Structure formats: C-alpha cells, structure tokens
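Posting for a labmate who doesn't have an account.
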Amino acid sequence: MKTRINATRGLAAFSLAALPMAVQAQADSLDTSNAPQRLNPVVVTAALAPRTADETLASVTVLDEATLRRQDPTSVTDLLRGQPGVDITTQGSFGKQSSLFLRGTGSNANVLLIDGIRLKSATTGAAAWEFLDPRMFESAEIVRGPRGSLYGADAVGGVIQLFTPEGEEGAPQPRISVGGGSFNTQRYSASLAGSSGGTRYYVAGSRFDTDGTAVREGGDDKGHDNTSGLVRLSHTFENDAEVGLLALRSKGNTEFDSFGAPAEDDFVQQVAAVYAEQAVTDSWRSRLTLSEAHDERDTLAPTYSSLFETRTRTAQWQNTLALGPHELVAGVEYAEDGLGDSQTSGLSFDKERRYNRAVFAQGFLDFYPLTTQLSLRHDDNQAFGEELTGSLALGYALDDQHVARASYGTAFRAPTFNELYFPFAGSSNPDLNAETSSTFELGLRGQYGNWFWDLAAYQTEVDELIALDEAFRPVNVDEARIRGAELALGAEINDWTLAAALTWMDPESRSGDNTGNRLARRASESLRLDVDRELGDWSLGGSWVTQNHRYNDAANSERLPGYGIVNLRAGWDFAPMWSLRATLENALDKEIVTAQGADFDPVTFQAMPFDYLNAGRAAFLSLHFGG
C-alpha cells in the first residue's frame, strides 16, 4: 500500500512539474496577442468590486460557463471537489448531507453566496450544498482566505459565490436539455433569455430525479428529487439607473438512513432579492439591495419528525467611489436571522430572532507597481456582542507577468441557534463567544498569454473554537492551527484546455488530549487534473481527483482510506444548435468513503460505526438544444 501511495504522489508531482514546461513550450510558438480573457477573468467576490484575478491580491479560482457546460456535474459538490483548498465530505450521493471544508475550516466557517445573497441554515450555520442544482448557475468563484472584513460572520476559510445567468443582447434565446442514466436518473432543464429596450431577462427551470444508491453496505437505494426555478430580471434607464430582481427556489425530497431505518427529508432552498443602483456622479455609484434567504427541512423518521425553517433578511447599502486609480467601497448592512413560525419538532427555542448591524469600508490603492487593499468591518450582533475584523493585503508587480502578494486578515464564526438556544436541557450555551481567527498568507502568480500559475502558502490560527464538553454542552475551549500550500495552473493551448490544482494542508488540533491530531474528516493532500480537447464537432475530456486518508474523529482513531477517481466526458455538436453530451463518473468504479455514521447497540449501548458509501460507476447521456 505504501508503495502505491508513494507512486501516486510521485506521478502527481511529476504531472504538475511537467505541465508548466509543456505549456511554455507550446506557448513559445504561438501568437498570444489574442490571449483568452478567461485565464485572467474579472471577479467580484474577492474585493466587492470587479478586479482581474491577478489584481485581487487573493487566492481565487473561477469556474466559468464553459467549464460547467463541459463537466455537466450532477451536483455542485462534484464541481467543487478537489479545487484548490476545497475538501468535500458526503454521507452518500445524490442529495445526501454534504460538508464543504475550505482551507481546513468547517462547513459553518465559510460563506456561500448566490448572486451576492448569503444562503445558510441559522440552526446549523452551514449551507445545504447538496440541494443546489448546478444547471441553475453560470459560473462560480472560490475565494480562499479570511473575508470577515467584507462579509462579516463565518468567512473564516473563505467565500464561494455562485452566479446565475442574465439575459444577453438580442432576440430570445431558448435552451432545452433532456437526459438520464444510471440508477434510473432523469434530468430536464429549460431556459429562455434575452434583452430588449434596456430590459434583460432570464427564466429557467430544472428537474432532477433518481432512485439513487445505497448509502451503507447492504442498505437499500436512497432516492432524491429536486425541482428548481429561477427568474432574473433587470432594467437600465436612460440616466444609467438600474433596477432588478432575482428569485431562485429549489424544492424536493431526499431519502437517507436514520439508525438503520428508512427516513426522508422534504427541503426548500430559496433566495430572493430586489436592488436599485444609480451613478450619483461620474465617480460615485450607489446600490441598495433587499434580500431574503430561506432554508427549510422537514424530516420524517421512524422515531421522530421535525420541521426546521430559518430565514435571513438583509438590507445593504453599498457605495463605490473611484478616485483616479484608487477605489473606495463603503456601506452599511442590517440582517436578521430567525426561525420559522412553525417548528413542528415540538421544540421551543429560548430566542427565535437575532439581528446584526454592520458598517464596512475597503480602500484599494494603486501605486503601481505596489498595490494595497485595506478593509475594516464592525459587527454588532444581538446574540454574542461586537466583533471588529480587518485585513491588509500588499501586492507588488515584479514585472508585467508576475505579481507577489502578502496579506493578513481576521475573521470570526458566529455561534448558531442550535449552539446558543437548542432547547434540550444542557445541550446549548447562551454564553458562547464567537470563534475568532487570524491568517497570514504569501502568494505569487504568473499570468501569461494563454496560461497561468498561482502559488500560495498560509497559516491560520483559530481561537475559541466551539466544541462539546464531557456533558455534550457546547463551550469555547478548542484551538486549532491550520497550515497549507496551494498550487493552481491553467492553460488554453490550441484546442486543449488544461487545469491542475494541488493542495497540501496540516489542519492541527491544539486542544487537550487531541493536540497534534488532524482535525476530523479533513484530507491533508489533494490533487485535481482536468484535461479537455476540442476535435471539430467533438469534444473529449476527463478529470482525475485523488485525496489521501482522513480521520472520522478528533482522536484520529477511525481512519478513512484515501481515494482516486476518474471522470470522463464527451460532447458532439451534430447539428446547428443541437448537441449530445455523455459523462462517465467514477469510471474505474472506486469506493469513496469520506465520512462514517454509527448505530447503537440497544443491549451494550456501544456505538457500531459504518461507512457512508458514495455511488460507484455511473453513466449519463443528455440531448441539448440552444446556444
């Protein structure tokens, strides 16, 4: 086994070392005057304002529309798995509970945004990644590192933002896709987009339905269905004022095991927003956004039933001021987290509402070749008091192609409603403080005509980590230190599209008997390679994702093996506006286990662990009409 692991690491290292040389050899013979913009894309998540990737002074990965269309994943987690700094654990495939670790921080210590609107559960603090249909989104931005000074609570490991499409200029453009495959899976989607007279619109719907697979050895198949709808509308007036709205809703059902017995969740994930933006002067733009995010889960199991419904309503006023080459962003925000009116679990939380008031500012100063980004935010939360977060990033252009960067930032994770107010006696703690963190990072990016590389190293210290004491009551006792390094590469050479991501991480506990142990369920090494080739009307591609072992528990006594999976894909544009796409996921039919559950022996009261199994080999075929 050790020999095989070492061989895999050697192959990974060789692949990443050889890629830049191969790309450079090709690039030297090409005209790069029309270099593809997608290798240095404009991103907005890292700095609250449009910046090219090499200008953000942050570690950022962009998954654009072309990537989403080529890979056509069945879940958002499949798209994100193995990206730089990203680790995914799941309790089965197709709508089963998933957790996303960003730079080793927990699933409730990073932020999910959909077109700028935060989506999470106020009771658990985490986003339900498994209930989002990837066909509803056009692109994704992964920003790694603390962003508490821009986004407030929970942006400890970073921020992931999913973007929905908007209508393009011209006549209405329809898109329709129909497909299915393994496990009696069916997928349908349709959309209509266009623009006329200053009005842009995009309307879409999708349906995903599968019998699923067993989530544990010897278990029954666990199905999943998801129906999603999206409306996005905006209008620009002659005075350059703009108003718009967004509504996205996913609703469905997923089956799972509860202590060895069949159970199911009915779920709803929803975001809605209206906004107005106006150029006050030639250098000052002002934007007001009102939004609501809704998370609902209705669980039916043999021994219990529950309904947890949470809502977050937010009002934000943001102003952007251009001062020559410099830029200032400042704003205020008011948000209210609350539980739904009908919690049918029979539980009564001590408090069902909390507000958060914030003021924030960011300065982006360009003294080429030196650039500086300075941000500061003050949060006043009704439940746990005040938090001040800040960050400072420096960038230096070594030449036209290379930028070095250094940054320091702080962030915090807010205690959840469950941690503060869960009504079972002794199972919550209203005196909890927020977790706090500080992060140093050094980075270097090379940006060329048709390829790039980005290298980053960082260290994060987390204090006041919330953990359960001996009486299973949450308390502020833990500490952690997370060190890591990431290497990302991308290239477009003739008809080839290449991407690689290598992550090394040491997420170490600094608490009591677990000091020196790896934080639970985190892999420490990860590699992802994506290769695609255009061949006239055909396209071929594949992804290889491999990760080393992890531990299911804080004591590091329950080891879960590493894995390597290969996903293959092909496309055929057989007529104008018509195409076929085929994917073969986990082509080598490898077993993937990233989490364990436990049953309890009613006689001995001992825990009996079992592995959560992900799907094996799966094939899917779809027919598409539209651009």
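Reply:
Got it, the structure tokens are right above this. The chain has five helices and 35 strands.
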